[in-house]
Amino acid sequence: xxxxxxxxxxxxxxxxxxxxxxxxxxxxxxxxxxxxxxxxxxxxxxxxxxxxxxxxxxxxxxxxxxxxxxxxxxxxxxxxxxxxxxxxxxxxxxxxxxxxxxxxxxxxxxxxxxxxxxxxxxxxxxxxxxxxxxxxxxxxxxxxxxxxxxxxxxxxxxxxxxxxxxxxxxxxxxxxxxxxxxxxxxxxxxxxxxxxxxxxxxxxxxxxxxxxxxxxxxxxxxxxxxxxxxxxxxxxxxxxxxxxxxxxxxxxxxxxxxxxxxxxxxxxxxxxxxxxxxxxxxxxxxxxxxxxxxxxxxxxxxxxxxxxxxxxxxxxxxxxxx
Length: 322
Description:
By secondary structure, the protein is of the alpha/beta class. The protein has helices spanning 2-6, 27-31, 52-63, 69-72, 78-83, 118-129, 149-162, 179-187, 205-208, 214-226, 228-231, 247-259, 286-299, 316-321, and strands at 67-68, 88-91, 133-138, 167-171, 193-195, 234-241, 264-269, 303-306.
C-alpha cells in the first residue's frame, strides 16, 4: 500500500511511566520504587551467537518488511531462536497504542492502516524458513474498530493456504473494543493455539498495564477456552516475575488462569528494557521457577514453561506438544 510506504514509522521513544501515584506500601507502589542493583545473576547470562540461520532470518524479515517481537521487545532469546531459524512475527505495525510500564515496543498513534500485503508476506517468510510452528503476535491497535482481529484472521488464513503443514499460534491483544466479535473472526480460522498474555498479577495492573484490566484479559482467555472444541486448539498465557509481586499473588493468578480453562502457561523473569521502564524488584532463581512449574502442573495445566529466560513464545512448538 502506497500510504504505508510513504509514511515512515516514528523513531522509538522510551515509555514514560503513567502518572498514577499508588500508595508506597501497596504492591503497585513497591513496583515503582528502587529495584535491585548490581550485576545480573549468572543464570541470566545470554550466549550471543549469530550464525548463518540468524543472518538468514534477519535478512528475510527486512526483505519482506516484517517486524518481529524478538527485536521490537528486545527479547533475550533472539540469538538462540534466530540461530535455530525461528521467529515470532509481529503484525499490524510496530507502534503500540498502549504504554505498558515493562514493554520496549514504541508507543503512540500508528501512522498507517494494516498493510494488506502483510498476510501473504508472513506466509512467504514462514514457507522459506520451513517452520512447523509459527507464532503471530501484534501491537495493540486501539485505533482500529476490531482491534486488528480481521487482520489476524487474514494472516492465519494465508498461512493455512500457503503452508498447510505449519501449526499457527496467535498471541493477541485484549481486543477490548469488542472481544466476542474479535474471537469470532480469529477462531474461525482455527489456530492451533490461541494465546493472550495476562503478563502480571492483578495488583500490579495500574502501573504495569495502564489501559488494560486483569478481569478483561482473564475473560478473553475464558471465552476462548470455552470455544476450544469449536476451533480445535488450545489456550495459553504468560506471566513475568520480578515486578514486585509476591509468591502468593503469583499462585492466585495461576489459579485464576487455570480456572478460566487455560491449558498452557509460560513464566519468565522481567528484565528492565531501559531506565524509563519499571525497575526489576527481584531476580527469581531457577529453583523458584521450578517450584512454580510444579505448582502449575498440580493445578492441571497441560504444560508449564518456567525459567528465567522464558518468554511466551520460547520453545513454543515444544509447549504446544505438552
